[in-house]
Each structure stands twice: as structure tokens, then as C-alpha cells.
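Z., the sequence and structure:
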Amino acid sequence: MKALVYSDWGIVEIKDVPPPELLPGETIIRVEACGICGSELEAFKFRKLRRTPPLILGHEFCGLIDSIGEGNNNLQVGQRVVGNSVLSCGSCFPCLRGDRHLCSNRQVPGMDRPGAMAEFVSMPLDHIYPCPDTLDPTLAALTEPLVNGIHIMNMAPPSIKPSVAIIGAGPIGLMVLQAAVILKEARILVADVNEARLVIAKELGAEGVVNPTNCDLIKECTEFSGADGVDICIDAVGTGQTKGQSIEVLRPGGTVFWIGLYDNDISISSYKVTVPEKRISGTYAGKKDEFELAIKLLAEKKVVGGRWVKVYPIDEGVLAFKRALKAEGNDIKTILIPKRDE
């Protein structure tokens, strides 16, 4: 089969590789669409050891069931499904308490096993979710990023119409934005250094947009909230600078969610967290019911893609990957199509 392969440090290429083997408890999926995730771009750019070549990347995908191994749970060949990005063991402490996305033994397609930037991918039967045939595959491939946004809103304090700041208008930031509008009826300010992305954020429901290179972000968030800072901030970038800013823009007692994974080791002022009782929460992936809700919202067109989603055939996968690395203009989310209909 044809695949986009992260074959060596600094190298991605289209290669013919053996298709996955059908194992008991798993299914082979004919991939219809697969998104390129920012974490994959960062791993490639900075040679992060979490993704070590050679490897087929890809965990944001939709496809049709091609074959089913022993242990079928009422799935059918030809059925359209999306895949969970976190494969859990079901028996560790996090799994047993219902937090399977935090599994101690988790595997991620495109990290710990071959991913979906290929014509076929294998997945455990209990980690795929049916979606309507009417849902366009390129939209269905946005399910996993949307799940991240839904998960954050479910973790957020119970409040109606909170003031929310989102740092970063990339794919995750834009999905958090749409989830916040739908689930929290939030007033949202989006910050990004890319003006084209701010235009998209405005179109998707942001009440305000700012470019931190041209203004004081803390002052803008304070004025936007009409108080002493926003109720909730989401750092969808993850640099040391943005993590620091995400704490600064909060009101006392506010909550920040860190989802961006750009930098690991950072330095922060603990007094700025302890004294005003600000809360910092990491957030990672999502749960089964959040996948089901994401599929529903996409199918009902309550969450949309649009001109910020760019689609490429897998033959142009190297070009698409390199364009995504540059993050220019409104070329924000990249989707690969392994095979186009004739």
C-alpha cells in the first residue's frame, strides 16, 4: 500500500509498504482521510523522541471497515468509522476508574504503532466509533481535534457565558473555540501572531481577536473580561512564553488549560499561581462519550471546517507536510486523502 512515511530524521517520503495484518480483536480500515497533527509537525521539526523514525504517522482519521478480526462488537464491513487517538489497555488504574485516555500503557497510532497516513490502518475494535455515511470524510477526520476541545470544556468549571482566552488559532485552538461557543456559550478572545488565522477565528465565533506582537495581551484580556482577567484560558501553543501568558491573563481563581506541547521544560512564578488561587490543568485527548458527541456535532454541521482546511491526495503528501510545517496564511489544517474516487 501507499503511505507517507517518516523514514528518517528530517525526511518524509511516499513509499510502498506492506499493508497491516489483521489480528484478533482488531479491524483493518481503508483510510478515507487523515489529518496532519501539530504534534507530528513539532516532532518532525525538533526531532522529538516521542516519535522515532521509521514510522507511518497519523492518528486523526476516518475510513471504511475493510475487514474484521475475531471479537467483533457489531461493526460491519463497509461501515464508516473514526479512530480514537489513544489505545488503552483497560486494566490499569486510570482505565479502571474510567479515564482510559490516561491509560498507563497507552499506545498512539503514528507514535507507538503504524498510523493512518496510508491506504490502510489497523485498529482495536473497541477504539473505533461509527459515524454517519452522510458525514464527509474530510470533516470526520476533524473528530479527534474537536474531541480535545470538548474535553477541555467538560473539564472547565460549570459556568454559563464565561470569558475565555484562547492562545493560538491553529487547528486545536479553532476546535476549542467552536466547542466553547457550543457547550459554554462563552465570550471568546483569540490571540495569534498570524493575522490570517485571526480572521478565521472571527468567522468561527470569536468575539475578539488580538495579535500579541502588536499589543499587551494581559491588558487586552483584562479589558475583554470587564473584570480582572478571564475566567478560562487555553494555551494551544505550548511555548514557555505562552504558558506564562496563560497564567497572567487569568482572574484570581481562574483556570488555565495547557494543551500545547511545544516546550517541555519551562520556568514560571509559583507565587502568581498560589496567592491568587489560579488553577493549571493539563489536558490530553478525550473520552468515548466525547468522541460520540464530536461526531454528532460534525454530522449536524454545528462544528464546521471550511477554507482553513486544505485537502491533498496522498501522492502530494510530502508537499502537504512541508506546507503545514511553514504554517503560512490560512493554510491551517491539512488533510490527506489516500485514494480519490474515480
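The two ends are 18 Å apart (CA to CA). The domain at 151-282 is CATH 3.40.50.720 (Rossmann fold).

Let me know what you think.
H.
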